[in-house]
Amino acid sequence: MTINPPTDRWIGRSVPRVEDAALLTGRGRFIDDLATSTTTLDAAIVRSPHGHATIRSIDLAEALQSEGVVAVITGEDIKRLTRSMTVGVKANVECWPIATDRVRYVGEPVVIVVATNRYLAEDAAERVVVDYETLAAVVEPLAALSSDAPVLHPSLGSNLINERSFSYGEPEEAFARAPHRIGIETVYPRNSCTPIETYGVIASYDPGEDAYEIEANFQGPFSIHAVVARALNVPGNRMRLKTPPSSGGSYGIKQGVFPYMILMGVAARIAGRPVKWIEDRLEHLSASVSATNRVTKLEAAVEADGRITALAWDQLEDCGAHLRAPEPATLYRMHGNMTGAYAIENVSIRNRIVLTNKTPTGLNRGFGGPQIYFPLERLMQKIAWELCLDPVAVIRRNLVPADAFPYRTAMGSLLDSGDYETVLDRAITEGGLAELIERRKSARSEGRIYGIGFAAVIEPSVSNMGYITSVLTPEERERAGPKNGAQATATIAIDPLGSVSVKVASVPQGQGHRTVLAQVVADALGLEPGAVSVVADVDTGRDAWSIASGNYSSRFAPAVAGAAKLAADRLQAKLAKVAAGKLNTAPEDIAFAGGRASSIKNPDNSVSFPRVAAAAHWAPGTLPDTVDQTIRETVFWTPDELSAPNAADEVNSSLCHGFIFDFCGIEIDPKTGEARIDRYVTMHDCGTILHPAMVDGQVRGGFAHALGAALLEEYAYGADGSFRSGTLADYLIPTVMEVPEPLILHHETPSPFTPLGAKGVGEGNCMSTPACIANAVADAIGAENLTLPLTPSRIRELIADDEPQAKNPPRGNDSSKRAGPRKLTGEGSATVAAHREKVWAMLLDPNTLDAIIPGSHGVRKASDTHFLADVTLGVGPVKGRYKADIELFDLDPPNAVTLRGKTTGALGFGEGEGRITLSDAGSGKTLISYTYEAGIGGKVASVGGRLLDGAARVVIGQFFKALANHAGGTSVPGNGLLARLRAMIGGGA
After folding, report:
1. At the top level of its lineage, which domain of life is listed (predicted)?
2. What is the pTM of this model?
3. Cβ(50)–Cβ(134) under 8 Å?
4. CA–CA separation, 222 vs 858, rounded Å?
């Protein structure tokens, strides 16, 4: 950090965080820590194992008879008691928080089981039997547009739910005049946030008032409060929403908890008691929201010197199975900033939104920014390559000049302040770019693979609520009425002893609300920060709030803290009049410092702050006539600069705009393809810095998050919609071992539009770092087309030397390439101390099968070759009960038989086929040889390839070992390797 703390004020100093004492000693109050009434029930959710299927029937009989069960809720109950949730665009489609007629993504809620505790609810959930008819799925956005693609919502008629085109300036003419037309195509993948704390909801219903009270670790925006109240069919004042004091991270994703507020509200209404639901990690990975994935074609009209005169954007946004509010926020949040940090006057944009059989998307740190800057900054590098120019020179030539601020972009954004070229020069000098270039030169002379990448981005903050209406035509917006602004609220109160309390309608997720707000108010009132108490939860039935409230788009420092500053200033002005009366001087002569109000002209003429501040309580009759009261001051602030989109579709989509310039050096391991970051420099201009240490933490957190997106993290789906990233063994997030130490630099150009001059800083590296790293990798290996994440295997495929030929190349019918459930294959053998005829008879005996099938709860004989069974099996953290249907065919007694089986359960499904061959092994023994191919889907498939193949071998091995033991073969010791493996993967009853 390069910040010099001020000595005359608290803002700008890295004071100790108020929040840390409780958090570091385990005394934080998270959603699962909150006390609940003794009558509170727990909920478990039965989720879809299929990416796309029709629900033929749901059998609840066994679940309803299970111990402790109070209620079981289906989609029909939800439809009866609620309304379809608001869809993000005008479209003929319904959006329910639970599946009704069909399931459209793996993990979609199908049934809610409410019981006296979570354990009993989970047990009963496994007894719910859902009969599905699987449908073809579509997971790729381009494929979803095909005329023969399966349609997710028949009422919509296609998977394209919205399309809009925009033109600013004269893009066609600019392209016609330009000597060069340079383009790039990119695919930005799905990734997510994975906070330590998952979703949580506690809901109750008052039938006398027809009112809901819901506590949830919801982040906001609180515009969703109206969506939830409308869905629950109650006025807004009968849907009280509260948030806990502590939240274990969010980064945007906890906005997505709102469908579960609706579900648990209805569950509480039906059960007649409060209901609590805490999401588990597997549910969160497979079924919470994620960032959108986007296919982009971007072209630039370019002059010979690298100056861009026009951009043409074509964006295809994949929002998953449902377009839930506030989506398509991710697509339109950056609408006013499609030229990034560059002065480009001519722009065309085509935006299309498509639905696929994946989780619905939502807010994710930097939402919209990573998807924009990855193609834009990759294009800047390509322009430099094609025109044989220095990439930094191309960036510099296109930057908005310092004397142009406030600068209006072609799309309507008003860039508030900046000096981008100075920031660039400082980063290059202080970050040691010249030395890094020498490192690259030296590395390449030694035959090593080394590259340098750059990225220049603006970081928008304080979103204009009106940007989302850009998805509507001007005519549709006129009919709907204008939407704009970014209202922030703050209340400052003084108690009878003169103590100061602050309340804001923003939900903290680690930003240090209590610390920074205490600094802001302490500066205005001349107090120590410790004298100011800050309440950091939200209660819509108690607090001042608006639909713009919440903690999103980096609005805390510029908007929320700014509103607190305005409220403190108003209160100070009133207190100055009170103090002036007591000190017999003019209000403008009053200064507040050191816990006292003093005369500027005569500092000895002073009075304590509590004496002045508490006057409205103890002696209201002494207040000056021009002062109504000094007990409480509430400010609702929204900046004038945030107007609604106009008839030309121009919109200032955010209030203030930071600037970031990153560069990095990366070396590639030629054998493994691993990218190692040699140096990473990130320069930020976030306006006035309120707390340097927390700004440093925000930058580091954003950098780590972005590093995951660049190198590790991707939500992977099979062609059938099956989810392939269901544990943290498969969805890899960076740890301290993977995150290098970045060099963080700062430059301050205060915003003229915010009360404190602050801009956002919490999301920036999520926007800049993926593109910067990709550009460095491209520079290292000379590749033009890169797809994130840049895993070692992907990079290795792009390195230009020849791979040695595999000793055992995959066969043409390699099952791993087929569409459908995740495939498992294997083979093995076991020796049984019995003749073939005896072994054959055992394979056809249900009592024997019941004894030897792992986790069996009973085998029933439907016919001589058809058996039904109940089994409990587990893989890793996923363990559940399944219905099994087993058929034997192609019988060649007593030599061979083919076994085909299907299992279904709340945690997933499986199907497989295997050939069993019996042959004499001498001495009255039989050698059993087997080969199998199996496919699994649903939650059990999402635990990942690292466990599945081994688990399948163990479970199938258990079957034949048990058969051997049952027939009199050598027993398997209970503490042997097989037993340890079985315990490790959770197999067996």
Report:
1. Bacteria
2. 0.90
3. yes
4. 51
